[in-house]
Amino acid sequence: MSVRELVVLGTASQVPTRHRNHNGYLLRWDGEGILFDPGEGTQRQMLRAGVAVHDLNRICVTHFHGDHSLGLAGVIQRINLDQVPHEVTAHYPRSGQRFFDRLRYATAYRETVALSEAPVDTDGTLAVTPAYTLDARKLSHPVESYGYRITEPDGRRMLPERLAAHGIKGPDVGRIQREGSLNGVPLDEVSEVRRGQRFAFVMDTRLCEGVHALAEGCDLLVIESTFLDEDETLATDHGHLTAGQAARAARDAGVRHLVLTHFSQRYSDPEEFERQARAAGYEGELTVARDLTRVPVPKRR
């Protein structure tokens, strides 16, 4: 059974708190697992969430600030300790290669797994699989940072009433899907395009072209909202977003489900992020992330 969901492992900005771990987010996409921004403590949060390193196929790091990457050392060593039987690919800004190297070899351990390094140095496509295309877009932060986007290929939705009108049933339904036509009836006549699902992960950044490009048309958008709107100047100075800015970007992009995360420890009321997001005009599904929350990717339209 295919599962598409986000497992939130940590939601804290800069420093962990009593209630929030450093960042960490696992996207389950059918049979694959993509781990985003494993901050300190991610390995333990995975255990608490029932996530094993065997579930991981890719690791995507947006940038090399500690709250987004210090957990790499533990996760990589656990991948080797548990002898994950498949290749795991790591994506991260090429400009931070020296940090990745230090984290990968932070201590002595026995390498047993093929960990493939695929650094990012420009906007574009990083991987194409039968299940999705993975793209990266540059963001605006004091250190080089990239956001990531997953796009499922478009498919076809068969229309039963049109199939029946042409007398197409049983094995012939599969045949027309494979061959594109049957007895002079084109596939377009009995089906319609089923839009592929889209997911984006946007961490530390000011508003920029990359934010809007990543968010466009997403079914599920995970985006930082480090500050509340009254601290917008502080957010801009430090290369971050406010709840209202993130919500307006989601609203303008037609996002179906918005997940706000990466909260500054200065705020004690997480519900204020939701209030400000709604005040900014976002009307879709909205989750103010908490550690160990699970968020399903919305069903196809």
Give the biggest sheet: 7 strands, mixed
Order of helices and strands: EEEHEHHEHEEEEEHHEEEEHEHHEHEE
Shape: globular
Radius of gyration: 21 Å
State the helicity in percent bands: 25-40%
Describe this structure in words.
The chain is α/β, with parallel strands linked by helices. The protein has ten helices and 18 strands. It has helices at 42-49, 66-69, 72-81, 97-104, 160-165, 171-179, 209-215, 232-238, 243-253, 271-279; strands at residues 4-10, 24-29, 32-36, 58-60, 88-91, 115-117, 124-128, 133-138, 146-151, 155-158, 181-182, 185-186, 191-194, 198-202, 220-224, 257-261, 285-288, 294-296. It has a seven-stranded mixed β-sheet. Strands 7-8-9-14-15-16-17 form a seven-stranded mixed β-sheet. A two-stranded antiparallel sheet has the order 10-13. β14, α7 and β15 (220-224) form a beta-alpha-beta unit. The chain is globular, with a radius of gyration of 21 Å. 43% of the residues are buried.
